[in-house]
Specification:
The structure holds two protein chains of two kinds.
Chain A lengths: L1 E12 L2 E12 L3 E5 L6 H9 L6 E6 L2 E2 L5 H7 L1 E3 L12 H8 L8 H6 L2 H20 L15 H14 L4 E5 L7 H16 L3 E5 L3 H7 L2 E6 L2 E6 L1 H6 L1 H8 L4
Parallel strand pairs in A: 3-8, 3-9, 6-7, 7-8
Antiparallel strand pairs in A: 1-2, 1-4, 4-5, 9-10
Helix pairs in contact in A: 3-6, 5-6
Chain B lengths: L3 H20 L3 H26 L7 H18 L4 H20 L7 H21 L1 H4 L12 E2 L2 E2 L3 H23 L2 H11 L1 H6 L4 H27 L9 H14 L4 H17 L6 H16 L3 H14 L19
Antiparallel strand pairs in B: 1-2
Helix pairs in contact in B: 1-7, 2-7, 2-8, 2-10, 2-11, 2-12, 3-4, 3-5, 3-10, 4-10, 8-10, 11-12, 11-14, 12-14
The chains are: A alpha/beta, B mainly alpha.
C-alpha cells in the first residue's frame, strides 16, 4: 500500500532548480533510501515531504490525502516524523523533556488544564512519560533521562533525535543522514535500530551518504542528481545503473 | 527526606511572606515590599514571554500601564467594583498582548526588541495625549482602595496581604504552566523553533499565547499598583520601567521562576538602601547587573538552584528536572 507520493514536485530557489519534477511513490513498511551526489536536492526533497518547503509546483500526497499546503506541524500530527541533518535538539532541556516535547501532538491538555491539572491531565502526563521511557529504552538512552541534551555525546544526541521523532508516533519517519559522524561500532547499532523501527510498522525514508549502510538496509533506492530523479530500484538495480555510475563517477573517456 | 524538601521549603517561604507585616508595619518598608511584589509579578510575566518562549521584549511597561489605567478608569469613572477592575486590567492587557503578538510573529531578536520598544512608546504617548480619557500628564487621582471582607486596604501593611496573595497566585500559575505540555512547547520554541514544528508544535499559537499570558499578569500588576498608590500618571509607565523589569528578570535568571521574584526584590530594595551613597547608587546598580550577567549568567535563581542541589543531592545540578519532580527521584 502506498503511504507517500510526490507528483511532478519541483522546488526552485530563484534560478536554481533544487528539485525538478520528481514523481515517486513510497510503499508502506519499506526502508527507502534517497541518494545522490552533494547538492543533488536530497535534503530539499525531505523538506518538501515534511512541510518545511512548499513546492514551486507539483503535489505531495500522504496516506491518500493531499498535504501539499499543510504546514510542518500539521504533517507531524498526521504521522510524518523527521530528524535533522545537523542535530537540532532542545539543548538546554533534559533528555526526558526533549522526548516529552515529541509527545506534544499525541497529548491534548491546554493551558487551563496545565493550571488546574485535573485527573485526566495527570493521567495523560503519566502515560506520556511511560511511553517516552519505553522509547528512550528502545534507542538505548535509559538512565540519561535527567541529563541535559547538550551534555550527551554526539552519538547519543543522534539517538535522542531519533527517539524524539519516534515519540511523535509517526507512520513515516524521515532520517536525514543518521550515520554521519558515527563510529563503526555505533554504525552497527544504527543499522539494527533502523530495522527495528521498520518492525514497529513505521515506513523509513533515509537520506544517507554511507553507501555500505544504504546498500545493506534499503528495500528500494531513489537516485537524485541536480534535482532530477535519474534512477529508482532495488540496491542491485541501482548499483548496476549506468546513469547512476555516471552521476557519481563521471562519464568515461 | 528528598521528596519532603520542596514541600517544606514552600511552607517556610509562604509563612515568611505572610508574617512579614507582623514584624514591621513601617509604611516605608511595607510600601517597598508592595512594589517589590508588583515588580515580581511583572518580572515573572516577562519570563513567560522571554525566559520560556525566547521572545525578547523591552515594552513590558505598556501592559503594566494598560492594566493600571483600565482598572483605575473603571473604578473611578464607572464606579465598578475593584475586583472587576483587576480582572478587566488583566483581560484588556491580554487583548493588547494578542494585538502586539500577532505582528511580532515574523520578528525575532533585535527586530522584535525594537518593535516592543515602539509599542511601549505608542502606549505611553496614548496615555499622555488621550487627555479626555486618561487626564493626560496630570494623571488620575482618587483611585479607590480595595475593600475585602469588609476591611478597607488603605494602608500599606493591609494592602501587603493582597499583593502577597496575587504574587503567590502568579507564581502558582506560572509554575504550573512551566511543568506542562504548554510549557514544554514554549521551551521547545525558545530552544529551536524549526525542531519544535517537527514535533507537531504550532509555534504561532504558542508564541501569541505567551504574549497573552505575559500581558495578562502585567495588567494585573498594573491594577495592583494603581490601587496601592491610589494615583497614577504616565511617567510610571515609561520605557525605563520596561528596562527595569527586564533587568530584574535577567539578574534573577532568565527562565527561572524563583529568580524572577528574587531579582525583583533585590532590585527594588537595593537602590533604596543605596541612597546613602547618593548618585553613586546608579553606578553600583549598573555594575551589579554587569557583574551578574558576566559571572552568574543563570542569575540569582540559577545560583541558588545550584547551591540547593548541592546541599540536597550532593551532585551536579540540573537546571530543569522533568515534570513535577517525580522523575528526579528516578535516578
Amino acid at each position: 500500500m502506498e503511504i507517500l507520493r510526490t507528483e511532478e514536485a519541483s522546488i526552485y530557489f530563484g534560478g536554481l532548480h533544487a528539485v525538478e519534477k520528481v514523481t515517486q511513490s513510497f510503499q508502506q513498511g519499506q526502508i527507502f533510501s534517497i541518494i545522490g551526489p552533494n547538492g543533488a536536492g536530497k535534503t530539499t526533497y525531505f523538506n518538501l515531504v515534511s512541510g518545511y518547503y512548499m513546492p514551486t509546483s507539483g503535489s505531495v500526497f500522504f496516506k491518500g490525502h493531499d498535504v501539499t499546503h499543510l504546514k510542518a506541524y500539521e504533517r507531524t500530527k498526521m504521522g510524518i516524523g523527521r530528524t535533522f541533518q545537523n542535530i537540532m535538539l532542545f539543548r538546554e532541556l533534559t533528555v526526558l523533556d526533549n522526548a516529552m516535547v515529541g509527545m506534544h501532538s499525541r497529548m491534548k491538555s491546554g493551558i487551563m488544564n496545565a493550571v488546574v491539572r485535573p485527573p485526566h491531565t495527570r493521567q495523560e502526563e503519566h502515560e506520556g512519560r511511560e511511553r517516552v521511557r519505553e522509547i528512550l529504552d528502545f534507542v538505548g538512552l535509559s538512565g540519561f533521562e535527567n541529563d541535559l541534551a547538550r551534555n550527551l555525546s554526539y552519538g547519543a544526541q543522534k539517538r535522542l533525535e531519533i527517539a524524539r521523532a519516534l515519540c511523535t508516533s509517526p507512520e513515516l519517519i524521515l532520517l536525514d543522514e543518521p550515520a554521519a559522524g558515527l563510529t563503526t561500532q555505533e554504525l552497527a547499532g544504527l543499522i539494527e535500530m533502523i530495522r527495528k523501527i521498520r518492525e514497529r510498522g513505521i515506513t523509513v525514508l533515509l537520506v544517507e551518504h554511507r553507501m555500505d549502510v544504504v546498500m545493506s538496509i534499503s528495500d528500494r533506492i531513489m537516485v537524485l542528481s541536480f534535482g532530477q530523479k535519474i534512477a529508482e530500484g532495488t540496491p542491485d538495480e541501482v548499483r548496476a545503473n549506468p546513469a547512476v555510475i555516471e552521476a557519481y563517477l563521471g562519464k568515461e573517456g | 527526606m528528598r521528596s519532603m524538601y520542596p514541600r517544606i521549603r514552600t511552607i517556610v517561604l509562604l509563612a515568611a511572606l505572610y508574617s512579614l507585616p507582623l514584624f514591621t508595619k513601617d509604611p516605608y518598608v511595607m510600601h517597598l515590599s508592595n512594589m517589590a511584589m508588583i515588580y515580581a509579578i511583572l518580572s515573572l510575566s516577562l519570563n513567560v514571554l522571554t525566559g520560556f518562549t525566547g521572545q525578547f521584549s523591552v515594552g513590558h511597561a505598556a501592559f503594566y500601564g494598560i492594566g493600571a489605567y483600565a482598572s483605575a478608569l473603571l473604578t473611578t469613572k464607572l464606579g465598578a467594583p475593584i475586583w472587576v477592575g483587576f480582572i478587566a486590567a488583566g483581560v484588556v492587557a491580554a487583548a493588547a498582548g494578542a494585538v502586539l503578538g500577532i505582528p511580532s510573529l515574523r520578528l525575532r531578536g533585535l527586530y522584535l526588541a525594537v518593535t516592543t520598544l515602539g509599542f511601549g512608546e505608542i502606549v505611553y504617548q496614548l496615555i499622555v495625549n488621550w487627555v479626555s480619557l486618561t487626564n493626560g500628564p496630570r494623571g488620575l487621582i482618587g483611585v479607590p482602595a480595595p475593600v475585602i471582607f469588609g476591611r478597607m486596604l488603605d494602608t500599606y501593611d493591609s494592602y501587603y496581604y493582597l499583593s502577597a496573595t496575587l504574587l503567590v497566585a502568579t507564581i502558582f500559575v506560572v509554575t504550573r504552566i512551566y511543568y506542562s505540555r504548554v510549557g514544554r512547547a514554549m521551551l521547545a520554541i525558545r530552544e529551536n523553533e524549526l525542531a519544535a514544528e517537527a514535533m507537531g508544535i504550532n509555534s504561532t499559537y504558542y508564541k501569541v499565547m505567551a504574549f497573552v499570558v505575559a500581558a495578562f499578569f502585567a495588567g494585573v500588576a498594573g491594577a495592583l499598583y494603581a490601587h496601592e498608590i491610589r494615583f497614577i500618571s504616565p511617567e510610571s509607565f515609561v520605557s525605563q520601567e520596561s528596562i527595569t523589569i527586564l533587568c530584574m528578570m535577567v539578574v534573577g535568571g532568565v527562565g527561572s521562576i524563583a529568580g524572577s521574584v528574587l531579582g525583583a526584590f533585590v532590585l527594588t530594595f537595593a537602590p533604596e538602601y543605596l541612597r546613602a551613597v547618593g548618585d553613586l547608587r546608579l553606578v553600583l546598580y549598573g555594575a551589579t547587573i554587569v557583574l551578574m550577567v558576566t559571572y552568574a549568567p543563570h542569575g540569582l535563581g540559577g545560583t541558588i538552584t545550584s547551591l540547593e542541589h548541592r546541599l540536597t543531592h550532593g551532585r551536579r545540578p540540573k537546571l530543569k528536572a522533568g515534570g513535577d519532580g517525580t522523575t528526579a527521584a528516578g535516578v
